[in-house]
Amino acid sequence: MVQYPHFLFVHVVSESVRDSEGNWTTPTSSWVLHSICREETNGKGTVIMGTDGKAIVFSSIVFMPRTAAKIPENTEVIVSDVKSESEQIRIKGPVLKFNPGQLHCRLWI
Question: Which of 24, 61, 68, 75 has the fewest C-beta atoms under 10 angstroms from its C-beta?
Answer without folding.
Answer: 24
